[in-house]
């Protein structure tokens, strides 16, 4: 009876987290085939269980430029988003950490709420803002600054705006956690020893905030690498990220093994950042 | 200097959302253009069968998934915070946190493949739809609930349960009279979090659903692909409001009890 | 037969031994202080008695009953935690009532006993208040009331005065002792503060690295420390090293004298303890139990001054000079010192 609180979640995790990952792994070496479901398992029963891997899906990923470029683009978008989020999140986190105590909770709520209210409406808002007949163009035209509408939507600009907007909260929180722990007296001590405000920031504030900044970067980078919806709704049509490639392979091409291979490759690409992130968390 | 950064950041976060909310009440057929105050788009929503069906499905799935997530995640968070070391603890912790870091396409694909495999082996699930979405969302939500509950318990004095034992409570009674009341706010917040998460998910639902199971976010996504119309604008605002209320309630539940 | 009998208790955490073969008897109605530094095993001992850890070896008997296999909630003793561990979601009154509810005490009796316990600690007015609105001292009283309301024969206290500020500590200490005498229960108090232990306890048990090195009334432990550790831990005695001479004394070249105790020292003694307040200044020089030296430093302590005197042979002596004996000697002056044989305590180990 005592074991129940441990056993039930453990079984659930085994069945709904661990097992699915294994299944993806197995499917990535399966053969695509006709029928439903559209694959043939890479096993055969010949006296014992024999593995018959099909390495084509992985071969495709490595050889075909299409997929390689998809991974590179995803890395670029994820890193760019994470960097931009960091730049914007730092002054925000610092501002909240240094605010008067009674403002801190409401400010944090103000940062958290947009995240929890879901990102689809917010993406919709960006569409409305950036369309040719959208708000931004309307304002610019109204001010007389432009004659023809600027093609803001379905561009890299729109993509990054949407991504940063969606992930900013992820970056503010760990940074805030790090900065709020920075004892103000440390900065006062540095000042007393002769450091200018700029030097105090460089030699005291930044190093102390560094783990939080790294955590913030990873917290954005890792999920952003596999993002599908925002690039699909806001990004340029020719942009191909891993998330979209996976979606297309699965829903359009019905090539489940390749989709699985993409998933495995995506995970492999993220293993290092994930491990790094977990180690950072453990240290805190 | 940092005040400016903070204001800019908050403006960046909130302006699009506020504009969206504002223009939902515009009478103009062109989105994000003001045409006078009107509720016509909300009326249109109420008359739209497809939308109502999807909303109905989504709310049911979200509520069910949130409840399941609360129970699973609550147990997981408690185990991680209160149970000492046991064999496989590291693996347990890693799996518990996995849904948080894995990209949604991977989660969606992996769960779908598992359902397909189960169907091939046992015949269940016969059809993919509300049930499979519910199970998938519960799995994702549980990870979030676990984080909230674990953080909450870790911040509490671990001696409280021992004090209860010392005063004559059996371990079960100590849990019921001391641990559970103190966990309660985080469980409520976790439920609300999992609820909004479910209401927001497009990718995983798309993977694990079936022909009859179109959730509200899936519908919104397919409509947004074609561009923004006033109806979608109004729908987005309704979803926003619902999530706003749920998230706000969650935060109040957690913040009010911080003194404890 | 004592109330609590501990025999051969041992406990290790991984490779680290926390308690090694501990024997201890606590009598009924006794106030015992468990004194030791960090890592001494005193907190582990308390937790073993309470039942939150299980011993690797040995037995714990309470009133003849073997506790070793009993879970904490079944043991007829109570504990006051260092952090007080008040239930934040229950009011002061409900906190105190918690243990009685678990016993199934009927409502009327419960109310009466809660009121009685709160009155005992002077908190009866605040029964409805929530813990987070109490001061540190108030929380401590509630924790005490909560533990005492069940009328245990044995109460365990984990550093009860540690979190209080200095002036509150002394007053609360006296109140604690008064409570113990009033209730007649045995108290086992864990502390690292030797003054507290000496002031409040009927008996002091000194632990070092998991071993019980000395147990006895405060005066005995203070004046006759058994080992170097006890001598140094209680009252910072001078520990004087030397070589035994043929007549049962200790030859100390560092002091430039021979130490003689009231009786011939046990064979193999290489060190003796000498308390700073037993050294008299202005003693005629020469002979055993005398020394001379130069005052290196001086610290005024209110009712006495602590002098650091460098003896002729190089040893640094701590000497206490009472204010009522006049102004202390100046730094740099030469002083002569002497002490009684009864003040010399041979130390083992």
What does this structure look like?
The complex is a heterotrimer of chains A (284), B (260) and C (349). Chain A has 2 domains: 1-54, no CATH class; 55-283, Orthogonal Bundle (MetI-like fold), CATH 1.10.3720. In chain A, the strands form 2 sheets. In chain A, strands 1-2 form a two-stranded antiparallel ribbon. A two-stranded antiparallel sheet of chain A has the order 3-4. Chain A has helices at 4-27, 56-63, 65-98, 101-116, 120-130, 135-143, 156-180, 184-192, 197-225, 229-234, 242-252, 256-283, and strands spanning 31-32, 39-40, 43-46, 48-51. In chain A, strand 3 and strand 4 form a beta hairpin. Chain A is mainly α. Chain A contains 12 helices and 4 strands. With 260 residues, chain B is mainly α. Chain B has one domain: MetI-like fold. The longest helix of chain B is centred in the N-terminal third of the chain and has 34 residues, at 49-82. Chain C is an alpha+beta fold and 349 residues long. Chain C is elongated. Chain C has helices spanning 42-50, 92-103, 107-120, 136-148, 166-183, 194-200, 218-223, 228-233; strands at 4-13, 16-26, 31-35, 57-62, 65-66, 78-80, 154-158, 186-191, 203-208, 211-216, 238-241, 243-244, 250-252, 257-259, 271-274, 280-281, 290-300, 304-311, 316-322, 334-338, 345-347. Chains in contact: A-B, B-C. At the A-B interface, helix 1, helix 3, helix 4, helix 5 and helix 7 of A face helix 1, helix 3, helix 4, helix 5 and helix 6 of B.
SSE layout:
The complex is a heterotrimer of chains A (284), B (260) and C (349).
Chain A: H1 4-27, E1 31-32, E2 39-40, E3 43-46, E4 48-51, H2 56-63, H3 65-98, H4 101-116, H5 120-130, H6 135-143, H7 156-180, H8 184-192, H9 197-225, H10 229-234, H11 242-252, H12 256-283
Antiparallel strand pairs in A: 1-2, 3-4
Helix pairs in contact in A: 2-3, 2-12, 3-7, 3-9, 4-7, 5-7, 7-9, 8-9, 9-12, 11-12
Chain B: H1 2-23, H2 40-47, H3 49-82, H4 89-101, H5 104-122, H6 130-154, H7 159-166, H8 171-200, H9 203-208, H10 216-225, H11 230-256
Chain C: E1 4-13, E2 16-26, E3 31-35, H1 42-50, E4 57-62, E5 65-66, E6 78-80, H2 92-103, H3 107-120, H4 136-148, E7 154-158, H5 166-183, E8 186-191, H6 194-200, E9 203-208, E10 211-216, H7 218-223, H8 228-233, E11 238-241, E12 243-244, E13 250-252, E14 257-259, E15 271-274, E16 280-281, E17 290-300, E18 304-311, E19 316-322, E20 334-338, E21 345-347
Helix pairs in contact in C: 2-3, 2-4, 3-4
């Amino acid at each position: 009876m005592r074991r129940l609180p441990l056993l039930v979640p453990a079984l659930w995790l085994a069945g709904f987290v661990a097992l699915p990952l294994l299944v993806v792994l197995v499917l990535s070496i399966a053969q695509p085939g006709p029928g439903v479901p559209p694959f043939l398992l890479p096993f055969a029963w010949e006296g014992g269980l024999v593995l018959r891997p099909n390495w084509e899906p992985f071969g495709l990923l490595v050889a075909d430029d299409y997929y390689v470029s998809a991974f590179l683009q995803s890395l670029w978008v994820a890193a760019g988003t994470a960097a931009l989020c960091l730049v914007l999140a730092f002054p925000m986190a610092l501002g909240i950490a240094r605010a008067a105590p009674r403002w801190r909770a409401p400010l944090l709520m103000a940062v958290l709420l947009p995240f929890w209210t879901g990102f689809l409406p917010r993406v919709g808002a960006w569409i409305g803002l950036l369309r040719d007949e959208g708000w931004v163009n309307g304002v610019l035209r109204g001010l007389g600054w432009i004659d023809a509408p600027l093609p803001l939507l379905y561009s890299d600009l729109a993509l990054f705006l949407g991504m940063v907007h969606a992930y900013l909260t992820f970056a503010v929180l760990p940074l805030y956690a790090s900065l709020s722990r920075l004892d103000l007296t440390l900065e006062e001590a540095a000042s007393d020893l002769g450091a200018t405000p700029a030097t105090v920031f460089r030699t005291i504030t930044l190093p102390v905030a560094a783990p939080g900044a790294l955590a913030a970067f990873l917290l954005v980078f890792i999920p952003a690498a596999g993002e599908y919806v925002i690039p699909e709704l806001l990004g340029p049509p020719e942009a191909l990220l891993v998330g979209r490639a996976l979606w297309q392979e699965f829903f359009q091409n019905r090539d489940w093994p390749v989709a699985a291979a993409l998933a495995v490759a995506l995970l492999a690409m993220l293993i290092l950042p994930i491990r790094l992130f977990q180690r950072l968390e453990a240290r805190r | 200097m940092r005040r400016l950064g903070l204001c800019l950041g908050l403006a960046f976060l909130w302006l699009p959302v506020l504009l969206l909310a504002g223009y939902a009440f515009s009478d103009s057929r062109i989105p994000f253009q003001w045409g006078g105050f009107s509720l016509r788009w909300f009326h249109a929503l109420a008359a739209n069968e497809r939308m109502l069906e999807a909303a109905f499905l989504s709310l049911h799935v979200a509520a069910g998934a949130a409840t399941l997530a609360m129970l699973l995640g609550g147990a997981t968070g408690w185990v991680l915070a209160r149970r000492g070391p046991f064999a496989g603890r590291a693996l347990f912790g890693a799996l518990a946190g996995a849904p948080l870091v894995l990209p949604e396409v991977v989660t969606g694909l992996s769960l779908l493949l598992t359902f397909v495999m189960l169907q091939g082996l046992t015949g269940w699930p016969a059809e993919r739809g509300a049930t499979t979405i519910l199970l998938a969302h519960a799995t994702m939500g549980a990870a979030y609930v676990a984080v909230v509950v674990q953080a909450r318990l870790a911040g509490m004095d671990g001696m409280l349960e021992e004090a209860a034992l010392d005063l004559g409570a059996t371990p079960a009674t100590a849990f019921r009279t001391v641990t559970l009341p103190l966990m309660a706010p985080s469980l409520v917040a976790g439920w609300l979090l999992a609820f909004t998460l479910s209401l927001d998910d497009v990718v995983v639902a798309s993977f694990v659903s079936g022909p009859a199971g179109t959730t509200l976010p899936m519908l919104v996504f397919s409509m947004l692909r074609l561009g923004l119309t006033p109806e979608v604008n109004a729908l987005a605002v309704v979803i926003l409001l619902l999530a706003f209320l749920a998230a706000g309630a969650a935060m109040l539940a957690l913040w009010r009890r911080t003194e404890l | 037969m004592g109330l609590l009998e501990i025999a051969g208790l041992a406990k290790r955490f991984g490779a680290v031994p926390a308690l090694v073969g501990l024997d201890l008897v606590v009598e009924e109605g006794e106030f015992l202080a468990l004194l030791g530094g960090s890592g001494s095993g005193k907190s582990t001992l308390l937790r073993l008695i309470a039942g939150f850890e299980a011993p690797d070896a040995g037995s714990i008997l309470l009133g003849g009953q073997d506790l070793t296999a009993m879970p904490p909630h079944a043991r007829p003793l109570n504990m006051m935690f260092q952090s007080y561990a008040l239930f934040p979601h229950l009011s002061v009154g409900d906190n105190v009532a918690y243990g009685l509810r678990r016993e199934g005490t009927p409502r009327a009796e419960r109310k009466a006993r809660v009121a009685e316990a709160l009155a005992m600690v002077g908190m009866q007015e605040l029964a409805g208040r929530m813990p987070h609105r109490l001061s540190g001292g108030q929380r401590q009283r509630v924790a005490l009331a909560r533990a005492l309301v069940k009328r245990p024969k044995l109460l365990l206290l984990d550093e009860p005065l540690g979190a209080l500020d200095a002036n509150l500590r002394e007053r609360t200490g006296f109140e604690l002792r008064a409570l113990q005498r009033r209730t007649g229960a045995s108290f086992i108090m864990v502390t690292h503060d030797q003054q507290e232990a000496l002031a409040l306890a009927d008996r002091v048990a000194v632990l070092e690295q998991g071993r019980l090195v000395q147990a006895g009334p405060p005066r005995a432990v203070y004046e006759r420390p058994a080992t170097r550790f006890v001598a140094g831990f209680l009252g910072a005695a001078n520990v004087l090293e030397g070589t035994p001479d043929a007549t049962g004394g200790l030859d100390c070249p560092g002091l430039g004298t021979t130490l003689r105790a009231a009786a011939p020292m046990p064979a193999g003694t290489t060190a003796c303890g000498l308390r700073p307040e037993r050294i008299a200044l202005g003693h005629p020089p020469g002979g055993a139990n005398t020394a001379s030296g130069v005052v290196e430093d001086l610290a005024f302590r209110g009712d006495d001054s602590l002098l650091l005197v460098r003896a002729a042979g190089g040893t640094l002596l701590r000497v206490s000079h009472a204010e009522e004996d006049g102004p202390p000697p100046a730094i740099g002056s030469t002083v002569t010192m002497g002490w009684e044989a009864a003040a010399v305590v041979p130390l083992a180990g």
